[in-house]
Write a structure and sequence with these properties.
single chain, twelve-stranded mixed β-sheet, 14 helices, alpha/beta, 437 residues
Length: 437
């Protein structure tokens, strides 16, 4: 046991999450001390703007523009990086590790792209990198994968890990509104950024899925190998058809292990309406994790915001503090596995799924049989057919639900169908997952 009188922390970045983290460290100082045995002291905060009032009573905490000085301060045990992005966050983290500082970060984009370099540096230096706050805000999903579910072979993870997209799809489902209209409302309420591309195109979810996949299966994951598709093409018509068929549409981050390969994909997904994760609405996040011993488990809660994310940051600080006090820093491998196994990420065209296909088809004799013929030629079996708007002069929606098919075959069939004179415009495709209830 160490004779330290306190665990000293420095935060780089005093924005939303930095403010929440500082608030929790200060306001919950007593409960943190009781749990840890000694105080956790916030010594310094570095930010470009140290004048603006964040509404946090900092007391004797030193505000500085000098992030480098914070990193090299011999009194600081843990450096917390909360500026986000790739640069200079990566340089700050690697510099802290070089100076034998433990690191806590919420930076999912950085870890998804440069995580392996950071994990290797930390292992070599004998320090810990905590990143619970990088996925799903205050939901302790990463700690659950590393600790609570460590005895399991993880079979699958289905995750709603972007609150912005879940909010948009919830309003579209409940109120029948269009995507563009709901996006503007989400921006006005602060649920979506001025530039929402990372959220609505699935990039933010893919960053988080890279981390989840790495921890679940003990394999390095290249971010560029994750298939990523957003929600901007989803229409109220598709949501109505999904409801008629007993489904709801969610943007899911999905990872599965099968036959020595891993699937890692982000896309809009139709889920049975009674599937537990399908019932999670609004800005909330949720993850369904299936282990071979524990079965199906469900995690849900607030996936973003100053206090929920700050809660996850402080949990990492406390976890590292316990290891410092016990003299066993580095007890847990940063990437959760002592022995990691590089696994192949399955190409998207090789995955199998059921499919929702919506064609804009001319209401003429023989159209259904022509489309069905092309699907059959590509080994795609039809489960059900719905047609609305019979007798209209223009193209009408024709929906087909397929049995399980190979993505490559679906793409091949649609490439041919979309060129037919009886089909107006490209086919809408949404993958269907039955999952675990």
């Amino acid at each position: 046991m160490t004779s330290k009188k306190s665990i000293n922390v420095g935060i780089i970045g005093f924005g939303t999450v930095g403010s929440g983290t500082a608030c929790i460290l200060i306001e919950n100082a007593d409960i943190i001390k009781r749990r840890l045995g000694i105080p956790v002291k916030l010594k310094k905060i570095a930010d470009l703007d140290i004048k603006r009032d964040r509404g946090v009573k900092l007391g004797d905490v030193q505000l500085t523009n000098d992030a480098k000085g914070l990193i090299t301060d011999p009194d600081i045990d843990i450096v917390v990086e909360l500026i986000g992005g790739y640069k200079p966050a990566k340089e700050f983290i690697l510099d802290a590790i070089k100076h034998k500082k433990h690191v806590v970060t919420a930076n999912k984009a950085l870890l998804a792209v440069h995580g392996e370099e950071i994990y290797a540096a930390a292992q070599k230096a004998g320090v810990t990198v905590g990143f619970e706050a990088s996925v799903a805000g205050g939901i302790p999903i990463l700690r659950s994968l590393r600790d609570g579910l460590a005895a399991n072979q993880i079979e699958s993870i289905y995750g709603i890990v972007n609150g912005t997209c879940n909010y948009i799809l919830t309003l579209m489902t409940n109120e029948g509104r269009k995507f563009d209209e709901v996006l503007k409302e989400a921006q006005a309420k602060g649920y979506a950024e001025a530039d929402p591309t990372f959220d609505i195109e699935g990039i933010d979810s893919a960053h988080k899925l890279a981390i989840l996949t790495m921890l679940a299966f003990g394999t390095p994951v290249k971010f560029e190998d994750i298939y990523t598709e957003g929600i901007s093409k989803i229409t109220p018509l598709d949501i109505d058809f999904a409801r008629d068929l007993g489904y709801k549409i969610k943007l899911l981050a999905i990872t599965k292990k099968a036959r020595g390969e891993v699937e890692a994909r982000v896309h809009p997904t139709m889920l049975p309406g009674d599937f537990s994760i399908a019932t999670v609405d609004g800005v909330f996040n949720a993850l369904n994790v299936v282990g071979n011993a524990v079965g199906s488990t469900m995690f849900s809660g607030r996936g973003a915001g100053d206090m929920p994310t700050g809660s996850a940051v402080v949990s990492d600080i406390m976890d590292i503090g316990r290891d410092i006090l016990s003299g066993c820093a580095g007890r847990m491998p940063v990437a959760a596995f002592r022995e990691r196994e590089p696994l192949k990420i399955r190409k998207m065209e090789d995955i199998t799924s059921c499919y929702y296909l919506r064609f804009a088809a001319m209401d003429k004799p023989g159209v259904l049989s022509r489309i069905s013929g092309v699907l059959g030629k590509n080994n795609i079996s039809i489960e059900s057919v719905i047609q609305k708007g019979r007798g209209a002069a223009e193209a009408v929606p024709l929906v087909m639900m397929t049995h399980e098919a190979v993505e490559r075959n679906v793409r091949s069939a649609l490439a041919e169908i979309n060129t037919m004179d009886c089909v107006a415009g490209p086919t809408m495709v949404i993958r269907v997952e039955e999952g675990q209830k």
